[in-house]
Amino acid sequence: MSSSYRTKHQPIDPSVLPLMDPQYVKFHNEHVIYMPKTEDTPYSPSIRAAASKGLMPGSSHIRKVAKTEEFVIGHENIKVRAWTPLGEVPADGWPVLLWFHGGGWVLGGFDSENHICTAMTQDAKCVTITVDYRLAPEHPWPAAVDEAVDALQWVVGEGCTKLNLNSSRIATGGFSAAPKLTPPIKISFQLLNTPVVDSSIKEYTINTKAPWLSPDRMMWYRRLYLPNEADWSHPDASPYYAPDSELALVPKTFVAVAGQDILAPEALKYAQKLKSLGVEVETWVVEGATHSVMNLEDVMDSAKELIRREAEALNEGFQS
């Protein structure tokens, strides 16, 4: 069907257009503009099928690795997938990145961020393990948090033996929803990508016209994952409100921020709070990008550069 006859569900607001990266605008007008809005769709498990495969052609670049393995772990028999890099195993074992996919704790899955996981695996020379945590609304908060703890415990225990891991070089990371899934346990390094760190926000006031993640969409996710509003400011749902004594123990952190994202202000505020508590933080702002930047490596040069720098920072974190 000609694009001139297709319904344009998500046109870019004219006020935002001059602020956007031209490469993103081209992609948006070829693909995203025709996608129905998630928040206008009544929830059904069937909507996960497309989301779990990632957005094509934006995130199609999968790196070659030595091997890919899957394991069933924890009390709830959740699955984890491990990528091992090409090359010789270090004498003290592989460093490991424990990765939690995005999707608002409602969408996403094993296959939605393979491009990121394999990039980190090869470029940072680590084993990357992604967690197929249970999703809301069938499994609301704190199910995903509990499974993050199970996954970390498996990594430092059975996972070390099965995958030849170095338990003293563990990093955690994720995209969007994922940072809240990282438990407050001492680790070597942390990657936060366009993170949600304050779930108590009821009204967004900055970047509200930005493409991709609208205020209505954000609240659609939140009410499915956190149906009890009293939980919104809990530190496991809003890391920004964790006690300073805990935040001061956060490891060296890389925070990726998209310039045109409603979550940008809270990410920057969180990064500044960590810095004020003595945590070493690198903040990487991608101007003209939307919340989806990590999934657009094949579309935007700035997304490709972000993933390159992130893998580099991860490798540096393992060495420090």
TrEMBL record:
<dbReference type="GO" id="GO:0016787">
    <property type="term" value="F:hydrolase activity"/>
</dbReference>
<dbReference type="Pfam" id="PF07859">
    <property type="entry name" value="Abhydrolase_3"/>
</dbReference>
<dbReference type="InterPro" id="IPR050300">
    <property type="entry name" value="GDXG_lipolytic_enzyme"/>
</dbReference>
<dbReference type="InterPro" id="IPR029058">
    <property type="entry name" value="AB_hydrolase_fold"/>
</dbReference>
<feature type="domain" description="Alpha/beta hydrolase fold-3">
    <location>
        <begin position="97"/>
        <end position="294"/>
    </location>
</feature>
<protein>
    <submittedName>
        <fullName>BQ5605_C010g05878 protein</fullName>
    </submittedName>
</protein>
<keyword id="KW-0378">Hydrolase</keyword>
<dbReference type="InterPro" id="IPR013094">
    <property type="entry name" value="AB_hydrolase_3"/>
</dbReference>
